[in-house]
């Protein structure tokens, strides 16, 4: 006995509905999995530039850099070759600034924590600081970046 044309139509309609149900279920599953991560990424990108009270941020360019200030360039994430000059020979009491000539953010801190530049955006200078101690320093964002300031 052959199926009637009506029963074939019903069977095809059921297959279409079943396929649509599977597609919408798959779509809902994908949305449930990826939407929270996407929302978190968007939120972090929009909040990334806001900063926090606990992390000081250096100015993009200080109002004036004293003509006698010594500038240390932040060149790249490259170990002891990350700064120029390195080592730097600077007398105690000398004004010092760091200039971020790299394409990523950095934050230099003397190892004894006596100086902290705050976050330096690409192209930015730190505020001028009087050097009270000499010794090692590093980037807190990229700890493999190390430098030394020798006294004169």
Structure description:
With 152 residues, the protein is an alpha/beta fold. It has 2 domains: 50 residues; 81 residues, Immunoglobulin-like. 28% of the residues lie in helices and 20% in strands. The strands form 2 sheets. A 4-stranded mixed beta sheet has the order 2-1-4-6, with no helix packed on it. Strands 3-8-7-5 form a 4-stranded mixed beta sheet, with no helix packed on it. Strand 7 and strand 8 form a beta hairpin. The relative contact order is 0.16. About 12% of the residues have low confidence.
Summary keywords:
single chain; 152 residues; alpha/beta; Immunoglobulin-like; 2 domains; four-stranded mixed beta sheet
Brief summary:
The protein has one helix and eight strands, in the order H-E-E-E-E-E-E-E-E. With 152 residues, the protein is α/β, with parallel strands linked by helices.
CATH homologous superfamily descriptor of the largest domain: Cupredoxins -  blue copper proteins
Q: Order of strands side by side in the largest beta sheet?
A: 2-1-4-6
> What is the annotated CATH architecture of the largest domain?
Sandwich
Count of distinct structural domains:
2
Mean pLDDT: 77
What is the element string, with H for helices and E for strands? Answer: HEEEEEEEE
User: What's the end-to-end separation, in Å?
Assistant: 106 Å
Number of helices: 1
Specify the structural class.
alpha/beta
- Cα-atom radius of gyration: 29 Å
> Uncertain spans, ≥5 residues at pLDDT below 50?
42-60
Question: Would you state the CATH class of the largest domain?
Answer: Mainly Beta
Strand content: 15-25%
Please give the largest β-sheet. Answer: 4 strands, mixed
Number of strands: 8
């Amino acid at each position: 006995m052959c199926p009637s044309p009506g029963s074939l139509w019903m069977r095809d309609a059921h297959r279409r509905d079943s396929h649509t149900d599977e597609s919408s279920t798959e779509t809902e599953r994908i949305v449930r999995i990826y939407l929270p991560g996407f929302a978190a990424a968007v939120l972090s990108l929009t909040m990334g530039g806001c900063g926090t009270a606990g992390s000081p941020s250096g100015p993009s360019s200080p109002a004036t850099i004293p003509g006698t200030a010594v500038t240390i360039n932040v060149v790249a994430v490259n170990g002891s070759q990350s700064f120029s000059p390195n080592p730097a020979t600077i007398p105690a009491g000398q004004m010092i600034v760091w200039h971020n000539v790299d394409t990523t953010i950095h934050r230099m801190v003397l190892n004894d924590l006596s100086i902290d530049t705050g976050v330096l955006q690409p192209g930015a200078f730190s505020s001028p600081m009087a050097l009270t101690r000499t010794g090692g320093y590093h980037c807190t964002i990229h700890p493999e970046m190390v430098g030394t300031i020798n006294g004169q």
